[in-house]
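User: quick one, sequence for these tokens?
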């Protein structure tokens, strides 16, 4: 069994150890030491990385007999004493997030009689799933209480209680555990079974921010940032608010209201534009006369909706096909065809074959695109 230095002191950054074994593993090696401060991963936290005797540690695992194996990019000779160094900024960032998760989960489960049913840590933060839905107001209160616990700089203790003591403990755990259970306790906040390294005191978490919340499987999924990650997220958001404030000529606390006014103005303008577009279709229709045969139209500035409206209405004015084109000779044309009498699938198929177009549809209207010139299109429909 490997001596776990990270259990004794989660802040060990450098240590020396003796290589016990070195085995090839895929495109790398697995090395065991007599003792290690490299956390092999578990409890939702990734394995530590770093340097061991000049080779790079890229991962880790623990086997059934308690031996910790370190994944490396090079071999080391068994019996060799080696100096080791953990990638500390990465480890500390993970500890901040993991301890922050314990704080938030402990407070949430106690206040709302729920369970933490999912936990995932990535390089940028942590995702937590609870099996009850929590409102924005409830989450704001939980965030406030979590940061209060952080500011109180409470001790974070780790112990392996004996079976009798464990049986009397009220602790959180997703699994039924009976042997060598590692308990992480933050007094008055949380008591939880966990194998991962944590900060010594809650003050090291820095700050905790719930940056996103969404409904998930009847409960809620939260994205949480702690420490430097929360600081960086806050800085970026403040810079964005300042930029928006300047663009809108609005005070920073009033940017949301200013954006809402802009959206309302945009919606009003959309209604006006749509009314004008409809009027253009009406004017185009008014300029047309009933005709035998086909109608081939190239209205200027019409969007796809206007083209469909025009084709549908103008089809009543001809005995053949009404086809409306938008585009140019250089960029090609989008088309809409409609008829009250013709088989539109057959019409579109023949047109596409003749002028290398593409598209189709069902019923009395079809749509597509063609790269032919206007002259070629008009010649086809007026032949």
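Assistant:
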């Amino acid at each position: 069994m490997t001596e776990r230095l990270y259990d004794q002191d989660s802040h060990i950054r450098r240590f020396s150890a003796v290589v016990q074994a070195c085995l090839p593993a895929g495109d790398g090696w697995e090395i065991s030491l007599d003792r290690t401060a490299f956390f092999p991963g578990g409890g939702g936290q990734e394995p530590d990385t770093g340097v061991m005797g000049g080779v790079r540690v890229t991962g880790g695992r623990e086997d059934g007999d308690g031996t910790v194996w370190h994944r490396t990019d090079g071999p080391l000779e068994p019996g060799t004493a080696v100096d080791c160094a953990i990638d500390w900024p990465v480890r500390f960032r993970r500890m901040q997030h993991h301890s922050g998760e314990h704080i938030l989960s402990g407070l949430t489960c106690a206040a709302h009689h729920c369970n933490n049913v999912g936990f995932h840590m990535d390089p940028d933060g942590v995702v937590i799933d609870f099996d009850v839905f929590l409102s924005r107001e409830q989450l704001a209160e939980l965030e406030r209480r979590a940061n209060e616990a952080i500011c109180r700089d409470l001790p974070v203790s780790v112990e392996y209680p004996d079976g009798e003591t464990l049986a009397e403990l009220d602790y959180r755990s997703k699994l039924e555990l009976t042997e060598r259970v590692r308990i992480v306790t933050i007094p008055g906040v949380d008591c939880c079974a966990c194998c991962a390294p944590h900060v010594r005191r809650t003050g090291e978490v820095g700050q905790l921010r719930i940056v996103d919340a969404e409904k998930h499987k009847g409960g809620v999924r939260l994205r949480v940032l702690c420490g430097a990650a929360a600081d960086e997220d806050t800085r970026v958001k403040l810079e964005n608010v300042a930029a928006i404030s300047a663009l809108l000529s609005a005070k920073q606390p009033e940017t949301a209201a200013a954006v809402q006014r802009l959206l309302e103005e945009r919606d009003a303008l959309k209604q006006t534009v749509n009314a004008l577009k409809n009027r253009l279709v009406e004017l185009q229709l008014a300029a047309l006369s009933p005709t035998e045969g086909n109608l081939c139209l190239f209205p200027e500035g019409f969007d796809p909706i206007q083209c469909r409206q025009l084709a549908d209405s103008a089809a009543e004015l001809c005995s053949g096909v009404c086809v409306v084109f938008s585009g140019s000779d250089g960029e090609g044309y989008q088309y809409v065809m409609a008829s009250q009498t013709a088989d539109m699938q057959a019409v579109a198929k023949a047109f596409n074959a003749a002028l290398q177009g593409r598209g189709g549809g069902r019923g009395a209207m079809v749509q597509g695109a063609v790269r032919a010139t206007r002259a070629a299109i008009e010649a086809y429909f007026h032949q």
